[in-house]
Amino acid sequence: MGEIHRDVVPPFLRRVGVETGFIEASAVELPAMSDDIEPPVEPQPLAIGVLISGSGSNLQAIIDAIADGSLDARIAVVISNKEAAYGLERARKAGIPATHIDPAAGGDYRAYNHAIREALERHGVELVVMAGYMRLLGTEVLRAFPGAVINLHPALLPAFPGASAIRDAFEYGVKVTGVTVHFAEEEFDRGPILCQEAVRIDETDTLETLEKNIHVVEHRLLPEAIGLVAAARLRFEGRTIHISE
Ligand code: GRF
Q1: 177 CA distance to ligand 1 centroid (A)?
Q2: Total number of domains constituting the chain
Q3: Which of 28-37, 161-170, 184-193 has the lowest mean pLDDT?
Q4: Of the candidates 149, 170, 158, the residue with the CA atom closest to the CA atom of residue 213
């Protein structure tokens, strides 16, 4: 946990990773102070970059939480691997820079992930949020944002990882499933768990009603999880995350 690859950590403070204790403050370089620039008096809202692949209803939940004042953060950029993702439209309607990065364009997976990292850094992102991003995030991005990439998953991890978690849980016949927000690692759906909430599966539930119930919880839990990061209320101890009041 917290191993830093200095070759890829860019030369500015990774606020989230340092505040959670995921990385040592001494492991990142602080920006050089210029005599001409006054340091900001008030801390700025956490700048988040949201990765999506589809409808973007979770992105919308973040946009709404920021708009109604329940989440103190700022969406700096939205990135989709799918050009037709409706989430890009939602972002543009909200005046947020939104960009499609084509996985096929650069020739290979490395070039694609390099383009994602480049876009996140260009927009000054401090926390990367995978909100319905249906691809594995490349090592380069994870290493450039140590302890500062979170993922939303529609099941209670470590149960039912993968891309069809809601269906898998339903077809397995479990009575309780749920939603997980966790820090991303290079292994799919495996990083330290930030928060989870259970969703019951009753006799009357169908796959459709379960999906609806999961989405209701996701839309509440993801902004809450971002809020915990933004308020620096997390502390890592091994893979356990402690949350302060
Ligand atoms: C969510 O259920 C997310 O957990 C899953 O994909 C869905 C994305 O929905 N991985 P949306 O694009 O946020 O509407």
Answers
A1: 15
A2: 1
A3: 28-37
A4: 170
